[in-house]
């Protein structure tokens, strides 16, 4: 059963039925007891009224002899002679029991009350079955209004349930009436306290989704803009290749086309790496890693570029540094840092990498001897596609954006400072993992 309204309605109706049954039972037992007490009071009053009379008047005797009267009146003299009997009942005993008593006679039980005077003994008896039937009828009459009002209460419960759940129905209608592009927050006014946290959480989700979609739209727009130039250049280089009239021109056009393809390929690879490093991307499976080993392997991938540019790479990673992370993403982070350091370092310079475990953090330092980045621009270089105006080195401006994205997904921080080698120092700090 998935309907909240049906479950709530059934629960309330069940409680209503139990409450009505309990009230009916209590009322029945209470009225039954009160009726029994009333009948005992009548027995006693009748016996006491006869005790105070000198004799039974003829009119009173005829009334007692009425067959419709449930009571049997018996009077004995003090020596045991039967003086009066309203109706003959040979099954009743010839001796009275003083006070209240239950007497079994003639296959049924009688309720009696006897009282004695100095001259006679008086007993009034009534069949117990008649008393119980009359008491039960009185009790049922008292309970009957509850049976009549129960359906009315059930309708009231149904109406109250419908009114109480109306905000949920209106909220569902609000959501169903929206198109796929509407991410505006849901209205929160007039909602019950139990529903407000759900709507607030849903609005926060809509806000995060809106931000994610805005970031994706911006990413797609920036990527399309950045891809337009290299693709246009490739098209022009291909046209130059077709128009080449001699081998020298053809070789020159081929070299330019190859360089353009390499740049476009790198740009696409960086775009894919950036997409995977975005906060809204698929969750990573973190596992225990040795950060020193990850840095060592990533640096090995950049050795050919360093050799081609005459730059020396040096790694200081004397001991294992455990972290929790995703190996491929961390390798992309390190490769981008080393790639940038190599590209912006002059020929014959040195790029140093250090992996340390300090103050509860795993730290990676990447130092180069390049031109560095002024403090005023260090906050902007992490933006996607941002490139410094004075930078002549070809690139897409995605390297540090990728580094920032991977670091954020690992709970790490990235900071820029001046390097002892004269250029830029990039520091990445990750939480330490189990050894």
UniProtKB/TrEMBL annotation:
Q: From the UniProt annotation, give the residues forming the signal peptide.
A: 1-19
- Name all HAMP domain ranges: 162-214
EC class: transferase
Pfam families with a match to the protein in the record:
2CSK_N, HATPase_c, HisKA
What topology in the membrane does the UniProt record assign?
Multi-pass membrane protein
Q: Which reaction does it catalyse?
A: ATP + protein L-histidine = ADP + protein N-phospho-L-histidine
Record domain Histidine kinase: where: 222-434
Q: Does the keyword Disulfide bond apply?
A: no
Question: What are the EC numbers?
Answer: 2.7.13.3
Keyword Phosphoprotein, does the record have it?
yes
Xref: SUPFAM superfamilies: ATPase domain of HSP90 chaperone/DNA topoisomerase II/histidine kinase (SSF55874), Homodimeric domain of signal transducing histidine kinase (SSF47384)
Q: Which InterPro entries match?
A: 2CSK_N, HAMP_dom, HATPase_C_sf, HATPase_dom, His_kinase_dom, HisK_dim/P_dom, HisK_dim/P_sf, Sig_transdc_His_kin-like_C
What residue ranges are annotated as transmembrane?
138-160
> Which terms are listed as keywords in the entry?
ATP-binding, Kinase, Membrane, Nucleotide-binding, Phosphoprotein, Signal, Transferase, Transmembrane, Transmembrane helix, Two-component regulatory system
Any one GO MF annotation of this record: phosphorelay sensor kinase activity
Query: An example Gene Ontology cellular component term from the record?
Result: plasma membrane
Q: Which PANTHER family match?
A: SENSOR HISTIDINE KINASE YKOH, SENSOR PROTEIN QSEC
What is this protein's name? Answer: histidine kinase
Origin species, per record, is: Piscinibacter terrae
């Amino acid at each position: 059963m998935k309907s909240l309204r049906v479950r709530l309605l059934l629960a309330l109706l069940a409680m209503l039925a139990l409450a009505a049954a309990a009230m009916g039972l209590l009322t029945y037992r209470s009225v039954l007891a009160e009726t029994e007490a009333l009948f005992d009071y009548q027995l006693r009053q009748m016996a006491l009224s006869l005790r105070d009379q000198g004799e039974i008047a003829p009119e009173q005797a005829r009334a007692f002899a009425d067959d419709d009267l449930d009571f049997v009146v018996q009077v004995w003299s003090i020596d045991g002679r039967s003086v009066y009997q309203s109706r003959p009942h040979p099954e009743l005993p010839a001796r009275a029991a003083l006070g209240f008593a239950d007497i079994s006679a003639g296959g049924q039980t009688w309720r009696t009350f006897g009282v004695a005077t100095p001259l006679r003994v008086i007993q009034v008896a009534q069949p117990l079955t008649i008393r119980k039937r009359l008491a039960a009828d009185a009790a049922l009459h008292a309970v009957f209004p509850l049976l009549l009002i129960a359906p009315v209460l059930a309708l009231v419960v149904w109406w109250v349930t419908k009114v109480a759940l109306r905000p949920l129905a209106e909220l569902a209608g609000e959501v169903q009436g929206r198109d796929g592009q509407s991410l505006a927050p849901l209205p929160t006014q007039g909602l019950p306290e139990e529903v407000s946290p759900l709507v607030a959480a849903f609005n926060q989700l809509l806000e995060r989704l809106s931000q994610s979609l805005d970031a994706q739209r911006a990413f797609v727009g920036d990527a399309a803009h950045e891809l337009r130039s290299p693709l246009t250049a490739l098209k022009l280089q291909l046209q130059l290749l077709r128009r080449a009239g001699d081998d020298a021109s053809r070789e020159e056009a081929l070299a330019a086309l190859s360089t353009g393809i390499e740049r476009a390929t790198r740009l696409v690879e960086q775009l894919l790496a950036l997409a995977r490093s975005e906060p809204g991307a698929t969750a990573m499976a973190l596992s225990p890693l040795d950060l020193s080993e990850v840095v060592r392997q990533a640096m090995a991938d950049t050795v050919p570029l360093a050799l081609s540019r005459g730059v020396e790479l040096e790694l200081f990673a004397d001991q294992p540094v455990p972290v929790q992370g995703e190996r491929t993403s961390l390798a992309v982070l390190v490769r981008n840092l080393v790639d940038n350091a190599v590209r912006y370092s002059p020929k014959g310079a040195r790029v140093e990498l250090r992996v340390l475990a300090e103050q509860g953090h795993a730290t990676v330092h990447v130092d180069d001897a390049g031109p560095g980045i002024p403090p005023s621009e260090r906050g902007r270089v992490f933006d996607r596609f941002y490139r410094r105006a004075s930078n002549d080195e070809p690139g897409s401006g995605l390297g540090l954006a990728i580094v920032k994205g991977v670091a954020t997904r690992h709970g790490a921080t990235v900071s820029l400072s001046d390097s002892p080698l004269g250029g830029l120092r990039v520091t990445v700090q990750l939480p330490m993992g189990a050894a």
